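User: Okay, second chain of the day. Same drill as before: sequence in, structure tokens out.
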Amino acid sequence: MAINESASPHATNLKSISHSRALFFEADRLNDQAYTLLNEPVSAQTIHKFSDAKKRADEKYRQAWQEWLHTRDKNNR
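Assistant: Same drill. Structure tokens below.
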């Protein structure tokens, strides 16, 4: 008997965990990019670019955290 993995809760959880992990990796990458900007000479433009980049990273961390909490809550049911 074949098992449809896409319908199994375990496969769904693995997919959700994988998505959360990818979001955290992307957030880390964006965060690293933001802090790399601080190696440039300090100017209003540099600070603005850093602030924008940091906001993007923080938003990605928020998304990753939400996804992880959603997955955890599904596992605790």
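The CA atoms of residues 48 and 54 lie 10 Å apart.

User: Thanks, on to the next one.
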